[in-house]
UniProtKB/TrEMBL annotation:
GO terms for cellular component: NuA4 histone acetyltransferase complex. This is Bromodomain containing 8. It comes from the Eukaryota.
Length: 82
């Protein structure tokens, strides 16, 4: 058996190109307005802000949720001093 084959399934739910800063800001703003459970509204709200040349499914509900999850993982929680 070849090493590493069949052990893990790689899940690619989002686009392969990175989102622009503008697209990420639009995503975060839309989530602030609509919440992180209403991906239909989030997706519709940010479609007009896509960069030129993006495929039609760039802001699909699944991709928006995936990108928002990545943003949360990359963000450090604020440290408060008491």
């Amino acid at each position: 058996m070849a090493s590493g084959i069949g052990k893990h399934k790689i899940l690619n739910v989002g686009p392969t190109e990175p989102w622009s800063v503008r697209e990420k800001l639009c995503l975060a703003s839309s989530v602030m307005r609509s919440g992180d459970q209403n991906w239909v509204s989030v997706s519709r709200a940010i479609k007009p802000f896509s960069e030129p040349g993006r495929p039609p499914d760039w802001f699909s509900q699944k991709h928006c949720a995936s990108q928002y999850s990545e943003l949360l993982e990359a963000t450090e929680a604020p440290k408060y001093v008491l």
